[in-house]
Amino acid sequence: MLSNAGLLHTANLHSVQRHILRMLNELPWMHDYVELTYMPICLNVLFVWGKCNLRCRMCTGTHAANYPNQFGYLTAEDFRRTLQAAPSAKGVTLSAGDSDPFLHPEIESIIAVAREHGVHFDLFTNGHALTAPVCRKLIESGVCGMINFSIDAATPETYKRIRGADFKRVIGRIEMLQAMKKELGQKNPWLSMSLVAMADNIQELPEYVRLAQRLGAGRVYVEDLNGWNGRGSENKPAIDNPDWPAFIREAKSAAAQRNAAQRSAICGFPWKTGEKNFGFFPKAQRAAQQGGGRDQQ
């Protein structure tokens, strides 16, 4: 009944789940409701797959031997059914994997369904297929909490070498998003930018941090290279570059200036902490999230 009324989510769901688990041994009839303890708070939905508009050098999906090169997607009606089957979920990550979410032919309908169900989602994109009408709908609807642009470079030359595409185009899409948010008086979707750290792009990490600052990003997310060990490709881990510690120090210094302004801390570095991923100015990101809503792509 609570579920059908759309009340069984977030704090309400946590309260009900805790009560069931606490009283399970004392009240036998509680066993009739134990399935409520498995209801999800958020979902990770396979959104698009099988074909991408880019063929990035380090993407294990598009370079896989069994890559279908045939586009597939979750229809808006199937998305509606998914949300109806999980009424407790209020957050969704629309996973693109080996494709890009803005290639989805029903993206505007997806936005409408999410708004109808009071669901917020995040997007991870290369940015090239983002159009002005879709950008405006994302902002006006309030359903998209964050968009992460996977860029991996701070210069057109490195971007072309790694992603084989136009650097100015993706930067233009980010500027469009930020300008439209300002025009509409909205803080979300907040901007995240990511970089897969490799031996031939780690030298651009300091400038990447500065680029993100200029564009108004709430986070720079750096990923370790995965899936290329022993494959004899151009994709080499960042630590193969003998000067990587100096680039890390410079990037850390650049981020510290931003963090001082935002009163934020800097996350650790994977080569120091053993973690696979790290980010810059995370508290600035959380501040951006307060305005509304909330893969190696």
- In percent, how much strand structure appears in the residues? 15-25%
Number-wise, the strands total: 9
Structural class: alpha/beta
Amino-to-carboxy terminus distance: 40 Å
Total number of helices:
10
Report the CATH topology name of the largest domain.
TIM Barrel
Low-confidence stretches: 1-5, 261-277, 282-296
Q: Please state the second-level CATH architecture of the largest domain.
A: Alpha-Beta Barrel
Structural description of this entry:
The protein has 297 residues and is of the alpha/beta class. The protein folds into 2 domains: 1-39, no CATH class; 42-289, Aldolase class I (TIM Barrel). 38% of the residues lie in helices and 15% in strands. It is built from 10 helices and 9 strands. The strands form 2 sheets. Strands 1-4-5-6-7-8-9 form a 7-stranded mixed sheet. It is globular, with a radius of gyration of 21 Å. The two termini are 40 Å apart.
List keywords for this structure.
297 residues; alpha/beta; TIM Barrel; two-stranded antiparallel sheet; 10 helices; globular; disordered N terminus; disordered C terminus
Topology:
Layout: H1 10-23, E1 42-46, E2 48-49, E3 72-73, H2 76-85, E4 91-95, H3 107-116, E5 120-125, H4 132-141, E6 144-150, H5 156-163, H6 167-184, E7 190-197, H7 205-215, E8 219-224, H8 244-262, H9 270-273, E9 277-280, H10 282-289
Parallel strand pairs: 1-4, 4-5, 5-6, 6-7, 7-8
Antiparallel strand pairs: 2-3, 8-9
Helix pairs in contact: 2-3, 3-4, 4-6, 7-8
